[in-house]
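User: quick one, sequence for these tokens?
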């Protein structure tokens, strides 16, 4: 018998064996099997936003990723992350493709038209990044400037209100920062924590002291899923109460570096 034949015979017998195993399970208490099958909590995100969500090798890690995994655990659910464009997150949640949107997402009146938001889990700011030595010293100096943002973010919305500014929209915040390094634009408006990460990893950039806004991050949930909203709020409260949320945040944001 040649090798190929032997392998296929082994495979067939493995299949037969596992089918038998399945079969015997089927004969068992069906209710038990149903209970074993956990539901999966699917999180939509845009993993271009350190320290909240970013790629580490093949994994998506960060505060949001760990927090949502802990929420799923609280709820006794399996957990899965779907990475997509930031602007696709709310449509994904709204259509039921994902259960929750967790993406350092700021609660805004506009978004509340399309989704519900959980209780908030972080406060944030929009800041301005410029080149060291730039004449831009505060948000007011952005008038008439070229301002880079991540498409569809609150930074994008604020920048569009700056008088005579030319807003350049990038798919990733990191790309906006790169464009600034290359002097294609004059400034970037982006959330404070990712700004710190991007500036730390780049040369010759700084964050202006004066922040643009105060905002709050929350988890987006479909409007017609009030039940999940309540469950998520319950799980979030438990994670706040137990100190688990603080622990996750401390892992990714070193407060002494502020
Ligand atoms: N906080 C901002 C917003 O809600 C930016 C969030 C960007 N998040 C991301 N994962 N890329 O618009």
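Assistant:
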């Amino acid at each position: 018998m040649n090798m190929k034949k032997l392998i296929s015979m082994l495979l067939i017998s493995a299949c037969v064996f596992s089918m038998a195993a399945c079969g015997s399970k089927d004969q068992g208490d069906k209710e038990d099997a149903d209970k074993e099958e956990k539901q999966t909590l699917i999180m939509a995100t845009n993993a271009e936003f350190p320290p909240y969500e970013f790629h580490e090798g093949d994994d998506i890690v960060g505060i949001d990723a760990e927090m949502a995994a802990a929420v799923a655990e609280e709820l006794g659910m399996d957990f899965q992350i779907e990475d997509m464009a930031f602007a696709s997150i709310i449509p994904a949640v709204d259509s039921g493709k994902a259960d929750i949107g967790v993406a350092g997402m700021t609660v805004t009146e506009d978004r509340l038209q399309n989704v519900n938001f959980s209780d908030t889990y972080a406060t944030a700011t929009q800041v301005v990044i410029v080149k060291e030595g730039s004449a831009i010293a505060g948000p007011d100096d952005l008038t008439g400037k070229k301002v880079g943002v991540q498409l569809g973010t609150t930074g994008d919305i604020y920048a569009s209100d700056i008088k005579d500014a030319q807003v350049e929209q990038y798919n990733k915040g990191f790309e906006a920062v790169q464009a600034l390094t290359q002097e294609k634009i004059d400034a970037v408006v982006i959330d404070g924590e990712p700004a710190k990460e991007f500036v730390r990893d780049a040369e010759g950039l700084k964050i202006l002291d004066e922040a643009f806004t105060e905002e709050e991050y929350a988890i987006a949930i479909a409007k017609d899923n009030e039940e999940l909203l309540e469950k998520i709020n319950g799980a979030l409260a438990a994670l706040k109460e137990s100190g688990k949320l603080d622990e996750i945040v401390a892992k990714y944001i070193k407060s002494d570096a502020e």
